[in-house]
Design goal:
58% helix; 12 helices; disordered C terminus; 0% strand; single chain; mainly alpha
Length: 285
C-alpha cells in the first residue's frame, strides 16, 4: 500500500496506541500486518514466539495467565499473527469459466484496505482542510479508534440490513456516533463522521469494481470476514476496544475456517470476560 511519506512506525503498529495526525489512524497497522502475510512462515513463527515469551504467568499449579493489560495486548497480537497465518495459507482461486479467478482472502482484505483507507483518506484530508477550521485536532481525534469503529459499524449495519443496500451508510454513521468511545473525540463531529463514512462507502464500491467480490456485499460472508480482519488489523488496541473484540475478533474465532488457533482462543477467554462462554476456563499454559 503506497502511503507516501507516512510514518512507518504507525504503519507497522509497534505499540498499542496511535497518535499519527499524518494519517488520522487510517494507515495504522494495516500495511505492517499485510506485509506479515507475505513473509515466510518461519518469520511469522519467530514473531509468535517473541510474543509468547513476553506473557506473564502466575505461580499457581498449573500456571495461569496474569490478569494484566500487557498480557491482554499480547494475546490480541497473537490473534493477529493467527489471522496473518490464515491469510498466508494457500486458498482456492476458482472463478467462472470465462472470468477472472476469484480473489483470495488476502487479496480481498488488501483491495478493501487500498480503497477504504489509503484512497479514501486522501479525499478526506482535502475536504477537512477545506471545511474544518482545526483539521489537525480532527485528525488527532480520528486516531482514537474511529477507523476500527467504522469497520465494525459496517459489519453491524450489513448484518442488520442485508436488504436495503442504500441504507447502510446512514446506519454506520449512527453506530459510530453512538460508540462508547465517541465522547473522547470531540472534534469528530457528525459532519466529520458523515464525510468519512461516505468516502469509505465509495471505497467499498471502488474495490468491488476493482475485482474484489463486494458487489454482493449484503449477502457475502467473505466480505464481512474481510471487514472484520481490517478492524482487527487497524485497531490501535483491541484489548481496550470491546466492540472490536465482540464484533470482529470473536466472530473470527468462531469462523468455520478456523482462523484463530485453539490456544489463542483459550488465552483470550482467560483474559477477557466478553470471550467466555462460561466461568470454567481451562488453564492456557
Amino acid at each position: 500500500m503506497d502511503t507516501g511519506r507516512h510514518n512507518p512506525g504507525c504503519e507497522t503498529a509497534r505499540g498499542h496506541e496511535c497518535v499519527c495526525t499524518q494519517c488520522g489512524g487510517s494507515q495504522h497497522g494495516v500495511q505492517g500486518w499485510l506485509d506479515h502475510v507475505d513473509q515466510d512462515y518461519l518469520i511469522r513463527h519467530g514473531k509468535r514466539k517473541r510474543f509468547e515469551s513476553k506473557l506473564a504467568w502466575t505461580k499457581n499449579r498449573p500456571p495461569r495467565l496474569e490478569q494484566t493489560r500487557r498480557n491482554q495486548e499480547i494475546a490480541t497480537d497473537l490473534a493477529r499473527v493467527d489471522i496473518a497465518d490464515w491469510l498466508a495459507a494457500p486458498s482456492p482461486r476458482a472463478g467462472p469459466e470465462d472470468g477472472d479467478p476469484y480473489p483470495t482472502p488476502a487479496e480481498q482484505v488488501t483491495a478493501l484496505a487500498e480503497e477504504m483507507t489509503r484512497g479514501a483518506w486522501q479525499e478526506i484530508v482535502t475536504e477537512l482542510k477545506r471545511t474544518t477550521p482545526d483539521a489537525t485536532n480532527v485528525k488527532r481525534d480520528l486516531t482514537n479508534h474511529v477507523w476500527c469503529d467504522l469497520f465494525i459499524g459496517l459489519v453491524q449495519a450489513i448484518e442488520m440490513t442485508r436488504r436495503g443496500f442504500d441504507s447502510i451508510p446512514n446506519k454506520v454513521k449512527t453506530l459510530i456516533l453512538g460508540s462508547a468511545l465517541q465522547a473522547g473525540r470531540p472534534h469528530v463531529t457528525e459532519a466529520v463522521v458523515g464525510l468519512i463514512v461516505d468516502k469509505a462507502w465509495h471505497g467499498i464500491q471502488a474495490a468491488a469494481f476493482a475485482g474484489a467480490p463486494l458487489l454482493d456485499l449484503i449477502s457475502n460472508e467473505e466480505a464481512l470476514r474481510a471487514l472484520r480482519i481490517l478492524a482487527v488489523f487497524i485497531c490501535p488496541a483491541p484489548a481496550q476496544h470491546p466492540a472490536v473484540r465482540q464484533h470482529a475478533l470473536k466472530p473470527l474465532g468462531e469462523d468455520a475456517t478456523e482462523i484463530l488457533t485453539g490456544q489463542t482462543k483459550t488465552r483470550l477467554a482467560e483474559l477477557f470476560t466478553d470471550w467466555r462462554a462460561d466461568s470454567d476456563i481451562p488453564p492456557s499454559g
